[in-house]
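Fold these two proteins, one after the other.
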Amino acid sequence: MDLRQLEIVRAIAETGSFTGAGARLNVSQSAISRQILLLEEEFRERLFVRLGRRVQITAAGEVLLQLSHRVFSDIRDTSASITDRLSGPLNLVGGMTVCLYVFPLLLKEFRQHHPHVDIKVATGGTQRLLRRLRTRRADLALLTLPVDDPAFTSVPVLREELMLVMPAGHPLAGKESVGVEALVGQPFVIFEQGSNTRRTLDEFFVREQIKPNIVTETENIEIIKSMVASGLGISIVPFQSVERETRGGSLKVARIRAQQLVRETGWVYRAGERAPRVVQEMMATLTRIVPQLQLSVDRAS
């Protein structure tokens, strides 16, 4: 077994066919088939099973695929440590709020130190992003915790304060804190079910025995802010998502009296693997810039 054969195994797994692997590696399909046959003879195990025009990796093939990922990751890290320059791709994913209010500052800081890393960003719901991690279409995710899946490692990094937000002309506007009883009967524009932020809010409503009057549900924080500003209802959102609007006066925020509503956000990556150096550097960069983020009304400038 050699590095070229491991590269072929990975190319077949990622493209789903011998033809696709050959096109990616610029070699003939027959050469691809020959190298897989040699590996199968060496290990006396089938590595791929043909399903029509596609192939499916076997358990033995999966073992070699994981080895391929580890080996080439180590090669990249070793090369980077020698040249002291990080390069190559990094696929980063996160929820919409993170992409809008954390990633811009994070990636600006990261690029200043590592301009040769090719960063691609994707957003979506938590389960969709976890699938991208699981299938290696993503290297690192910044998600609302908890992520209760043994396939992933979670590292908490941010505690964001959740604030009551309302339009400037709302009767509750101007108060630093609002009692729980004032929320009864209020129309709410709120995060949709399935997200960890919505789970936190639902637990709060149950704990306080409030049946919220939900008029709209969406995972898009910009839609929530727009609907609140139009007077459709009030909401509970991370402070950093409305910091600019509260500073400009179009929205008002208040704490819910005697409550500490927070959501925890953290890095998530595949368990059982050593995080590549580029992933470690991205995580360290966020730790460095956390003081610059507007995570609480007390820290707003």
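Now the second one:
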Amino acid sequence: MPVDSRLVDSSAVALRQLIGTRGVSVTEVVQAALERVEKVNGTINAIVTLNPRAMDDARELDQRIARGEEPGLLCGLTAGIKDVTPVAGLRTTFGSPIYADHVPDEDAIVVKRLRAAGAVILGKTNCPEFAAGGNTFNEVFGRTRNPWNTGRSAGGSTGGGAAALATGMIALAEGTDLGGSLRIPASFCGIVGLRPSAGLVPTYPTDWAWDTLQVTGPMARTAEDVALMLQAIAGPSERSPLGHAPARRDFVAAVKAGPRRGARVAYCADPARIGVDPGIERACRDAAFGLTQAGATVEEINLDLSAARQAFLALRGLWFVTHMAPRLDQAHRFGPNVANNVKAGLETSTRDLASAEQERGRIWQTFRELFARFDYVVTPCMAVSPFPVEQNYPDAIAGKPMQTYVDWIAPTFVLSLTGLPVASVPCGIDEGGMPVGLQVAGRPAGEEAVLALAAEVQRQRPIGLPAH
């Protein structure tokens, strides 16, 4: 029996309510998602491995509902898992030929929590090799294309998840964020990505248990959907040394309540000091100052985080060497992005790393002082519009050549160093018809407030979804 294809364009929250009232079955939702995959994935290349058990999982959930069982917070919602995150029994390649045929025998913690909450794992989403890069392509699966313009990049490294969300192939996406990998593709594809505080969502398994620079987090089409997903996946685990106290937190209620009236918002157009496309900056400025309509006060500030660029490069080098340590004997098989990052890391001195940690401490102090005056810091998420998909990265920012090949993602990576919760939320469309993301940073462990403000931005400046 045919199903209504528009089902999969609904928000995750609306879909969950419809399933809860038995207005639609889980089987129908999953069937509609698979039909959407069949229709658009051949062009977009966002989902690289489908879960052959997805329909079986859907039927099992429908049977539980029929028996009157509580099927879970995310019952029936389709989820895409980034291809660096293990899913038991499902091909997981890390975007690398080294793992082209790798099939894990254990779910990552985040996958276990999604399953326990009733989500249906639809499949694995594309990413660069070992999540290295802001454009999603690899030798195993090729390039993911932006659904707003298939000649453009979907961003990275969670580009497959973002593109799949924007086209309705999935309702929720799991991803990781080192220098912006949840926020860059969210901005490019017009959806919401949250970099949560380190440890809020445990990362296990991992090759670096004490990693505070990369985090696991959620993406979805709306801030409320992200809150719903975060509700199911957040919380400490004995498998991870990083974690937050298991105090009861209600991310969904916080989004429904909205930002508090009188919230103080600081806006900075270019904290990384790399330049920003004028059209992007204009859209972000309008969105930021538009928050006065919700009772916020908005003030432009002069925030200079340019010194963080060199600090991040040093710490990124350490990150790659540490994570690649178990497979350095296969370094000759790494693609250029991974190989160059490992090489840079091996050449980084202890003095460089010490200076980077000192700078990270200064950034923390800067934000501590800012949050004595403000509740939020908001900035443009990206300095450039999505560039041609065949390019590894753009050549220039606002007409000026880049100093380093990663400068274009500096607006996100300088905020990674803070350890703060940071979201990207769509706030407009640029002159080329591509989405623009506004970056929202909040206080330590302030995910509730960040998502509440992101939801208000979406309420004021909806951009819709791309045609498909």
